[in-house]
Amino acid sequence: MSGTHAHSAAFVRDAMLPQEPPPATSVGALGWLRQNLFSSWLNAILTVLSLALIGYVLAAILPWIFQSSWSAGSLAECRDQIKAAYGSEASGACWAVIRERWLQLIFGFYPSELYWRPILGFALALAGMAPVLFTGLPRKMLYLSLAAPFVVPWLLWGGTVWLPVSVALGFVLGYAAQRIVAPLAGGLLGAVVAGLLPVLWWFLLAGPFATLLHQIGPLGIEPVSSRNFGGFMLSITIGLTAIALSLPIGVLLALGRQSDLFILRAICVGFIELIRGVPLITLLFVASLLLNYFMPPGTNFDIILRVIIMVTLFASAYMAEVIRGGLAALPKGQYEAADALGLDYWKAQRLVVMPQALKISIPGIVSTFIGVFKDTTLVSIIGLLDPVGFSNSIRADVNWNGIVWELYGFIALMFFVFCFSMSRYSMYLERKLRTEHR
Amino acid sequence: MTSYPDVPRETFRLRMLIFDTRYRSLTIQVVALIAFMLLVAWIVSNTVQNLANMGKPIDFGFLTGAAQYDINQTLIEYTNRDSHLRAAFVGLLNTLLVAVLGCALATVLGVVIGVLRLSRNWLVARLMTVYVEMFRNVPVLLWIVFFMAILIETLPPPNAFRGEDATASMLLGDSVALTNRGVYVPEPLFSRSLGDLPVFGAFNISLDLIAILAVLGAGLFVSAKIRARADRVQNATGLRPTTWYLRLGVVAVPVLVMLVALGFHLGYPELKGFNFRGGVYMRNSLIALWLALSFYTAAFIAEIVRGGILAISKGQSEAAAALGLRPNRIMSLVILPQALRVIIPPLISQYLNLTKNSSLAIAVGYMDITGTLGGITMNQTGRELECVLMLMLVYLAISLAISMGMNWYNTRVRLVER
């Protein structure tokens, strides 16, 4: 065939041309520019507008950030220093306020000689969380995770060592009851006893027991009252507790909402919708004003504890909805397969349903976590000194009256770092747990 | 039917309540119900006991007493001699006002940002990512106080507009004034007004507004009819009659006629003394709250919109193109109807979040229902229980109304599988 062609046509190329390099406008930096920034007139205009916007914002902010004062003792002094250094027209940030107050923004009015306690506490909490978050770490560290919930509050609030011990004893009692009663009287009764015994212990005996032990062997550290808590320490305390507690409660609520038991379902639906229907701030009003009314006369428990309770309930309701979404997204065959294997309800949930449902709902769970942590700023409205509340009290100081951007910028940056790293962690987790083909 | 005489008749024994799965669920439920009722009874009896000890039993009578405080931004007539109930109602209207304004702006911003984040322009896409991450990862309360600070610190005071050598000037042909106390925009006035319609003697609604809305509604209805007729013609003949000018005319002309008949004109704000008079005055607190809530929620809406568009598989638009549809018809007939089904439910829950977040108005002093009923009224009367309960009920009612709307929409657009 090719032979005929070669003879019949005037000219047919029968040798391959050497490959030319692609045109300069479609490779390298120039090609990238053309493709990504100036592919059409509209895109070119958008690019120029974006560049103008970026330039405008940076031109306004960068000099302000860097033409700054770090060493002044008051706002007026700050302005004088900046004018002296950069000319009379210059206006810059007064980072001196951060330098002077950053310890307070982080620890509140916590006694400065005891700063090691919250630092050690949060280090312990982190060490306790690490084996849960990253499966690559040694499993022995899980003992730390078990100890952290009792040790960290004790480090933060101080007081006798016997109180966390006797609270922990409640869990031990529950576990022991489960191990002893369940073989004797069946799983359900075992679960009921294991649930009831610790509650009775905590309400009736734990307090006197701790007091008694404290009289026998007075071991303890200096107590710190909740009024001294503030800054990011307060946010993290509230946020971390609410986050840690909301997951199990949320799982239970979601299971309740999905269950066949009508009354249980009605209670769970009512609770979830009630909590989700009202803003957090009304729940914080409940915490600060009403929760003491709901308790037996004479009870007056700690404001931070009350806030933690309400924030936890709030987070649990949202968590329940996220997990319900995961449960609903699970194919029905999984439930049926678990039944077919002869697993009972709790085993099916624990071994088959929950691992998959939780995996599906990771993005939702983490964004709920982020939301809860951000929402801890609302406690400033009921008068607690979280970073936002604390920034108001710094501005009430004569020296720093009128300072705005530096404080808000610092607080916003801190929150951004926390929340952004949480969202990145959720992406890591999603990638790690993905089991379908990649 | 065969019978099995050797199968023993089952008799009910007490232990079956626990070990027989048929009865166990009933047992669990009864126990749960009893426990729940005991808990509620315990809380209620504690509360009654505590309130009795303090000498203030539950009583909603305080609502009719004079409020004795001013509200600086109101939609309806209000003086400090009005009752607490009316103050709460003013607050509720303010909540709804900022919620509606916020939802509208957040939707527009969110859709634009969500679409731009998918842009093929590298710079624009990155810029929008920065926007989304920046707003999503910083608490909304911080944004609210931040926007308030921007308004107060950067806008000129009203007296900067005064005199020959004024340092500030009004925008848009002397019609809009941005000051550090608030924004003044022109107000609609009617020289041949129809008057007001009292509703339950509580507040007045302008009849002019009702008349204009009625005419507009009728116009939209007729326009929809014309469109339906065009659809029928297209189905029958394959050719779609051009109707856009007819539909535009049906909507616009009657409204314009109505406006002229009512003598519509704008009342411009003017500087008198130390402050502006006339026009619609929106306080800084309202503007800051509105902008902060909108910008914050827009970041979430952008993600929802982006997710919705990405959720539609590429095959859909390719199939539509293969059918010979033009790009804008592909968007409106194929992509959008499917994307909306994904977008709308989370979008509405964002509206819900925005409405609930508007309760943070208290941080900048905007008098929404949290500021009136849950703020000053509660502090003045000392009726915490009643006020907080009412506050929660109001928000619950708003939330339930919005979720009912969402459920209605969900059932309407649900895919009916065959």
Topology readout:
The complex is a heterodimer of chains A (438) and B (418).
Chain A: H1 2-8, H2 28-36, H3 41-66, H4 75-86, H5 96-107, H6 116-133, H7 142-157, E1 159-160, H8 162-185, H9 187-216, E2 220-221, H10 231-258, H11 262-277, H12 280-294, H13 303-329, H14 332-340, H15 345-360, H16 362-375, H17 387-395, H18 405-433
Antiparallel strand pairs in A: 1-2
Chain B: H1 16-19, H2 21-54, H3 84-117, H4 122-136, H5 140-154, E1 177-179, E2 182-185, E3 187-190, E4 196-199, E5 203-206, H6 207-237, H7 244-262, E6 264-267, E7 270-272, E8 275-277, E9 280-283, H8 284-311, H9 314-322, H10 327-357, H11 369-381, H12 384-413
Antiparallel strand pairs in B: 1-2, 2-9, 3-6, 4-5, 7-8
InterPro entries (chain A): AA_ABC_transptr_permease_3TM, ArtM/GltK/GlnP/TcyL/YhdX-like, MetI-like, MetI-like_sf
GO molecular function, one term (chain A): transmembrane transporter activity
Main location (chain A): membrane
